Amino acid sequence: MPKRRRLTVERHGRHDHGHFDGRRSRSYDRLARWTLRGLYRQVAREVAAVAPPDGRVLDIGTGPGRLLHELAALRPDLRLTGVDVSADMVALGEQAARKRGLSGRITLRTGDVAALPEPDRGTDVVVTTLSMHHWPDLPAAAAELERVLRPGGRVMVYDFRFAPLEEAEAALRARPRLAASPVRRGPLRPGWNPFPWYARLVLAAGGETGEG
């Protein structure tokens, strides 16, 4: 994983996984395949438990799509889409999906959280794992998450404990359809890991009133 200093610097710049392009994207994929497997499985279980039948799930900062592979195994009915700013990561994800026979079930796109290539109110669950701390403009990201969510949909943010989760919650709660949402926030200990390195933030979108 990148050093914390690098993550902190990039938090104040453009949301960009440029340091994961080319050879570094392949190195990250090999590392994440093993070190993050427990996290992806835990997140997949939580998403699978709340996604409606035949629902649409959008994974922002999907990288090589490992979370979507876990979701595809748990919930064959779900329609799964991943977005990442790195074209190399998306290419790796497409290759991995083909190898697993998931090309017809997983759609991967290049895009940024501030301008998601998704229709208005077309997504039941927006999930992001270890990506939010890169986002330079949390209010802009929150506006996009609200825009793509269906009424009653969920935003599920998973990140390191040092990530700006309180700022993310404030940005999301500033959105009209997320303002009154019950919030679930706390540490996450996936699998065998006894250390609370990760944390979660979950909100639900309201109904048809307000902006969106």
Automatic annotation (TrEMBL):
The regions listed as transmembrane in this protein's record are none
UniProt GO BP? methylation
Tagged with keyword Transferase: yes
Composition bias, kind Basic and acidic residues: at what positions? Answer: 7-23
- What keywords is this UniProt entry annotated with? Methyltransferase, Transferase
Region: Disordered, residue numbers = 1-23
Residue ranges of domain Methyltransferase in the record: 57-153
Q: Name one Pfam family in it.
A: Methyltransf_25
Q: What is this protein called?
A: Methyltransferase domain-containing protein
